[in-house]
Amino acid sequence: MKFIRYAKGQAQYRGILDGSIIKRINGTIFHDYSLSAETENINDVVILPPVLPSKIVGFRKNYNGKREDIGMPKIFMKPQSSIIAHGENIILPENQTVKIEGELAVIIGKKAKNVAECHAMQHILGYTIANDITAPQKEQDLTVTIGKFFDTFAPLGPCIVTDIDVSDVMINTYKNGELVQSGSTKDMIFDIAYQISYISSIMTLLPGDIILTGTPSAAVEVQHNDKIDITIDNIGTLTNQCISGKL
Fold first, then answer.
1. Taking a C-beta distance cutoff of 8 angstroms, is the pair 102, 230 a contact?
2. How far is CA 89 from CA 7, 95, 138, in A?
3. What pLDDT score was predicted for residue 147?
4. Which of 77, 117, 133, 201 is the most buried (most CB within 10 A)?
5. What's the pLDDT at 101?
6. Do 220 and 100 contact (CB within 8 A), yes or no?
7. How many Cα atoms within 13 Å fall on the side-chain side of residue 13?
8. pLDDT (tens digit per residue) in 43-64
9. Burial 136-171 (b: 16+ CB within 10 A, else e)
């Protein structure tokens, strides 16, 4: 199933995406909901970020290595204000180098605190596509925080897909139509169950919270007017344009 969040006029809705048709739903995707009689064509609405989480937690350097060589996971956070939707512009801060990373994002479906790995997957609502954007800083101890906090630095979407196996799916990132990143989720160092268990041992994960699971290859520098497409098997494509300017 594909959940989508969208706007029509001044109103915002949630729906189930079936091909190009959105079937509007009443209620919340995290509990009981019902189908309404209303439908929309996806070309007639504005796609919104699929969720507005209380927090985004990301894993760094989570591919192509061994746990024993990494030690403890390296995590970071992004604010809700960094989120934009499929189709919105990424604003590149002036005089900053900016790099993008295509990633699988996990959407938490129910409250998780001190969750064992064997139960972790029960706390997932579904998955979406994320672009983890960074403006690396000269002060190394601040790189992971300040560089990831900018507005528009967390494109998400276009929808949430449930009931899929993401243990071995391809993540491909294209810049202006050229493949610049490619890899499979099977090469994660810390898998999704571990990530949920680890984070929930530190902080409570709430419905709608997002985990960025890492990127499969090196980050890619972007410039003004670059078009970024990130595709993940069985989910779709997240597209955003890079624009230089003041935030």
1. yes
2. 17, 18, 25
3. 87
4. 133
5. 97
6. yes
7. 22
8. 999 999 999 999 999 999 999 8
9. bbeeeeebbeebbbbebbbbbbbbbbeeeebeebeb
Say if residue 247's pLDDT is above 80.
no
Q: State mean pLDDT over 139-150.
A: 70
Q: What is the pLDDT of residue 77?
A: 94
Backbone angles phi, psi at 134, to 5 degrees: -135, 140
Instruction: Report CA dihedral (41, 19, 176, 49) to the nearest 10 degrees.
Output: 60
pLDDT band at 136 (very low <50, low <70, confident <90, very high): confident
DSSP designation for 4: E
Report the distance separating Cα 181 and Cα 1, nearest Å.
Answer: 27
Give the Cα separation of 135 and 129 in Å (integer): 20
Residue with tokens 């290595």: 65
Paired strand residues for 103: 130
